[in-house]
Design a protein that fits this description.
Length: 294
């Protein structure tokens, strides 16, 4: 089973070009299923729908959320599709595996005054504060994923054109416009702070640490949460909340879903449609303002 999982992950990495985070999630899910089979002395290629349903039941008993369990079932389905296509098995035991129903939650986003307080929080009198201000400004201005933000290289940002080139899921590149305030914050960081952080070291990355390496995703999460607490923003603040804020505020000011899809790097517009609650609010406002009997 271990060999089959490794073969499948290689296929996902090489043939499908999936991102490292997606591969890590697949690996965790399949390793857990592998452990479940080992405990029951079930051979992978002989596992049936009963075994898979019992595995899913064990996830419920472990207290996992419906969202997490849905990801497990998707991982298993994709794995068995691969096995069937490559002649490793003739039966797909996931055919009778029901994914849990999930409530579609509206994405959490920040109000404009919360964004303003967050962006003003870093202390720009210190080099790291200047770096953090530039990162927060660029994150809100572009809606990049955190992995995309920390991986931006100096040559990826064109200050004259006002665009940043980034590589998203599946290795797909896109260009995202950058606003004037974010460009000004990055320019100030490059002129005043970056060299003081590096202290003679070289780095191809835009946002760096004192070691000359890029800032890790986890480190940025931590500093963002710290600034959120200092700014008095209730609830756990994550890079995805800022990304949702970027999308929501664009739609509130008239952007269309197709343009937003391109900027966010969504492969399917159905993913972008989680923001249609904003469009519904705008329709209500237009109706109330313009219908004679509203």
């Amino acid at each position: 089973m271990e060999t089959l999982i490794e073969e499948y992950l290689d296929y996902c990495r090489i043939e499908k070009g999936l991102a490292a985070n997606t591969l890590a999630a697949y690996q965790r899910d399949l390793r857990r299923f592998e452990g479940f089979c080992a405990e029951r002395r079930v051979v992978l290629l002989e596992a049936g729908s009963k075994d898979l349903n019992e595995f899913v039941d064990s996830l419920y008993r472990a207290g996992l959320s419906s969202r997490s369990i849905a990801r497990y079932t998707a991982s298993l389905r994709n794995f068995y599709v691969y096995l069937m296509r490559h002649g490793r098995t003739r039966v797909d035991p996931t055919a009778e595996l029901a994914a849990p129903r999930q409530w579609k939650r509206l994405p959490r986003f920040l109000a404009l005054d919360e964004v303003d307080r967050l962006l003003e929080e870093p202390d720009t009198s210190k080099p790291l504060g200047g770096r953090d201000r530039a990162m927060l400004q660029l994150l809100y201005a572009t809606g990049l994923r955190v992995s995309e933000l920390v991986s931006v290289k100096r040559n990826d940002l064109n200050m004259e054109l006002g665009v940043v080139r980034t590589t998203g899921k599946g290795g797909k590149q896109r260009l995202v416009p950058v606003g004037r305030q974010a460009l000004a914050a990055v320019q100030s960081y490059l002129e005043n702070d970056r060299s003081r952080i590096l202290k003679g070291k070289n780095s191809e990355y835009l946002f760096v640490t004192a070691r000359g390496s890029l800032l890790t995703r986890q480190a940025f999460w931590n500093l963002l949460r710290r600034y959120g607490l200092q700014a008095g923003i209730a609830g756990k603040l994550s890079p995805h909340v800022v990304r949702h804020s970027f999308a929501t505020h664009l739609l509130e000011r008239g952007a269309d879903l197709r343009s937003l899809q391109i900027m966010l790097g969504h492969a399917d517009i159905s993913t972008t449609q989680i923001y249609t609650h904003v469009l519904r609010e705008r329709l209500r406002k237009v109706y109330d303002e313009h219908h004679p009997r509203s």
